[in-house]
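Shall we go through a protein fold together, starting from nothing but its sequence? Please make up or recall a protein chain and show it to me in full. Go ahead whenever you are ready, and we will take it from there.
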Amino acid sequence: MTGKKIYFASDLHLGLPTHEESLPREKLFIQWLDRIKPDTAELYLLGDIFDFWFEYSRVVPRGYNRFIGKIAEFTDSGIPVYFFSGNHDVWMFDYFQKELGVEVHHKPLIKEILNKRFFLAHGDGLGAGDKGYKLLKSIFTSPTLQWLFARLHPNFSLWFGNQWSVSSRYSKEITHIFRGEDELITKFTRSVLEKEHFDYFIFGHWHSPIIFPLNDTSNLIILGDWLVSNTYSVWDGEQFKLMKFNNTGEDIVLSVAR
């Protein structure tokens, strides 16, 4: 792994608001993947890569061929890719694992990477509070609901799912101002640190790119998104950086973890 780097990105929301309108975003993300591929040791995609996703046993959503093909290039060349389901692509099952060799996670992953401890997740629903959202998530992750949804014809179910997802997203601000200590995710990470140490907590979901120091040796990282920010993070074993992709030249360093 000498000279190689670990990359993290999230919240691409492919398909928002339509496949056609999200295509430039997909192509931009592929430019980024092409740029990082030569020095990538591992790639982590931390959720909401799709704005809506549902896999039937013999049908997957139409579109996204450029993105899926590029991920296949990574795994075929021996680069491990980890995919975390988010609240928008929670109905991801085994297609990426079987077809692409991607490791799919529906729960947080604790892992040591280049001698540092990482806590990785999309981030939604962690910790105390937000009971309404947690109830809704429990409904959507219900095997019974998933079985019933799969009984619908794909022409209707995928249309309905996309309509629901788009209306949900546009009912709120696309961007979010991270509120520091007032965020539930900050309270959650601090509660975890009371029991065990992590150098980096990395999440998507909040669309607000930031490195937020929790103490002298632990940081909370929100990756941002590819709707507005075009941000990602990279760890080379010495420095952890929050970056902004610049498709016309060198990428911009937004922040470096202390």
